[in-house]
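Input (Anaphase spindle elongation protein 1):
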Amino acid sequence: MDAATLSALIDASSAELAALHAQLGSPPAELEKAMAALKTCIHDAVHAQLRLVQADVTRVAEQCTQYEKNITALCAATGAKREGEKGDAPLLAQEAHLKDEQGRLEKAYDAQKQQCAVVLEQIRTLDACMSDAGGKVPDPDVAHGEWQDVSAQYLQRLESHWQHVQQVYTARKVQMEAQLTEIVQLWSDLHVMPKVTVLGRQISADASEQAQFHLAILRYIQQVPSLDDGTFHGEFVPLEQGDTSLLAAEVTALNVDDTPAPTHSLLQPTDGVMAQSEALRTSLEQEKTQRETNIQTYYDELCELWGRFGVPDDEMDAFVHEHCGSTLGVVAAYKEELDKMRALKSQHMSLFIAKTREQIWDQWDALYMSEEERQSLFPAYFLELPSDDAPATDFDWDAILAQHEQMCTRLGEMLEQRAPLLAKIGEYRRICDEAIQLENSSHDAARLLGRGNRGDPGRLLREEKMRKRVKIQKPRIEQELLGLIPQWEEENDMPFLMDGRRYVEYLQEQLEAAKENAKHVRTRAPVRDAKPAPAHGQKRPAPASRPVSRAAPRVAAPPPRPASRAAPTPRPRVGARVAYAETPRTTAPYAETPQTGCASDETTLETPLHRQRTPSTLLASSFAQPTPSGRHW
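Output:
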């Protein structure tokens, strides 16, 4: 209705109202009152309609404003951009456009939220398998009302954290599997049976925590102990009907619906499992170390006893090869052999003392001791010993042997203390030997005429090089010794003697003699021997005058031999004494030696062949054979 129509309606209504009042004969006041009421009614109707339309305008405007807020928040949460601009369109058109835009952004938000939820679930699942070792999950940067941050940046942060969790899980799993591998290897090396019950190729365990953990380890590696007549010999066989697909169950990709989660039926690298495996591995390693220590201790003593008795190398190596590993059977075999050798030692103490005396004599020779020094230093060496078969109930063999071994240790320490000087003196003696050779060669005229050196054309050249070397090195070494020996004597508060005489005085005399010889070189023969007196001025006592066991023939001490092939690396005995010309220790074999061909289990120890291969049985049989009686001092 336009304004003209409304005006005509009002005019017509007013005229009709006036006519009706005139027909009615109402007073003018009533007409005016009726006209005022008509005006008020028309005014109220118009304003009511205006208010109704204004309310619709306000409602649509507010809805558009809310759509604007939601769209802004969704764009911030998803990182998307809005399509189109607001422009000057009517409110209803704006409302429809904004509603469609919000619906589009809500779909994008739901899709991105689902992606974030998948990654978060994978992170929490994998993190639970390793006691939350992956770290804290990244939080959204900003909260946008009821919409959380699902932007591409936040999803990228989640995926980066997921990759970090995977790396941590893989590292812990590798560490756990390495520990489990070591545990199984130690079970095999030590022949220690896991605390499980074996029925064919099926295994079970009681309800104890340790037994259940052993059962879980075997199920993880899909192995079962192999028993021979109810005894475990360190072998495992595959577990029957093992579901090996579980071993490969590991999350390896993102946003894949069919990606398998880590199964909890297998061991997972949690803190508890890692602590249990570490404790079990440490316990088994300590057991192995204890056994190896026992074997090494027995072996060190056996090596010395075998060397004292002159056991051949092949017999030693045969025993070592037949008893490799770290099982209780090997420990028992070494202990049994040591007990037998100790028994033989107690029966043939004179042979041991004779071997020790040979060693002491060699050490005396290395120290250049005179006869008087030897007798005053250790009179027990020259003590007459009774024969093994002679009654000597009052003779303390153990005390005499202990004295000899103590002296051997003491002489070894003296050799170690004087080693630098002895090495320098040895170098000086070699130079002096070369000087003597040159002196003797200078009196051989045939070497100049070429008659005596046809088979050695380079003799003159070698002599010239030797002469230059002697001329340069001999004075230098002499001066070094003249400086080192007094320093050593001052540090040790004792004279440095060789053959009972201060060596520094001997050097000074040699230098004075050389100077005098240079002055009278034309009238006096040169000093031929410029080196010290022979170190071995004393002769070793004759074999007949030294104690010899009547029960066994004299066998020379075996030469130094390398470590047995069954041993991984040679290792000296802890606390072993330093001894000159002593047969070096070798390391007993442990579990590093392959078990194939090694009679390391308990059943092998009971075979007759094993009894025949031990050095103690061979020595016992050789001692049982009658031999001519030797002379005793």
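The radius of gyration is 53 Å.
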